[in-house]
Design brief:
- With 174 residues, this protein is of the alpha+beta class.
- The chain has two domains: 4-78, Alpha-Beta Plaits; 88-168, ACT domain (Alpha-Beta Plaits, 2-Layer Sandwich), CATH 3.30.70.260.
- Helices cover 25% and strands 42% of the residues.
- The chain contains four helices and eight strands, in the order βαββαββαββαβ.
- It has helices at residues 18-28, 59-65, 102-112, 146-159, and strands at residues 4-13, 32-41, 44-53, 72-78, 88-97, 116-124, 131-140, 162-168.
- The strands form two sheets. The protein has a four-stranded antiparallel β-sheet, with helices on one face. Strands 6-7-5-8 form a four-stranded antiparallel β-sheet, covered by helices on one side.
- A hairpin with a 6-residue loop joins strand 6 and strand 7 (131-140).
- Helix 3 (102-112) runs antiparallel to helix 4 (146-159).
- It is globular, with a radius of gyration of 20 Å.
- Residues 7-87, 91-167 form the ACT domain.
Length: 174
């Protein structure tokens, strides 16, 4: 039996029950929730779901299923299961005074060294001296150029007056 893959994104102001309402529509229409991420950003709630179905729905058919859900929604259909790239995982944290360009400088350096960002979060502290915090998880194909890209990233962080910490993430099989 064929499986069909879809990515669904929802964005709206935060409200109680939005996850329950959205996943009820998925359940009632036979979707399997394969992966998800949700977050609240300054009062705006967003959800991204990777779902599968045995039925070959069009993007519009899926949007119509959610017509009673008060959210901005997008649907992306995949021809095959999206590939999950393997590699070495690293956790990167960046701290500094809040200013424009921190995310761009760090992510451009990562891109120049062919590192794949799989998670990125930013926050600004509520203290009197605003501190910008960026947390990333990245994947390198291997450890061959580890010292090269890490030194470059440390130089970039210094150039934009931020502090950076890089740690290799160890995974253990259960």
């Amino acid at each position: 039996m064929n499986k069909y893959y879809y990515a669904l994104s929802f964005v709206n102001t935060d409200s109680k029950g939005i996850v329950a309402e959205t996943t009820k529509v998925l359940f009632n229409n036979g979707f399997n929730l394969a992966d998800s991420s949700s977050t609240l950003l300054q009062g705006v709630f967003s959800m991204i779901f990777i779902v599968t179905s045995d039925k070959n729905y069009s993007e519009q058919q899926i949007k119509d299923m959610f017509k009673n859900i008060r959210s901005h929604m997008e649907v992306f259909k995949f021809d095959k299961k999206p590939e999950i790239k393997d590699g070495v995982h690293y956790s990167i944290s960046v701290y500094g005074a809040d200013k424009a360009g921190i995310v761009h400088a760090i992510t451009e350096d990562l891109a120049n060294h062919n590192l794949n960002i799989i998670d990125l979060q930013t926050k600004i502290t509520d203290s009197s001296q605003k501190v910008y915090i960026m947390m990333l998880e990245v994947v390198a194909e291997n450890e061959d150029n580890e010292s090269s890209w890490q030194e470059s990233l440390k130089k970039t962080a210094k150039d934009i007056n931020t502090q950076i910490n890089i740690k290799k993430i160890e995974f253990y099989e259960l």
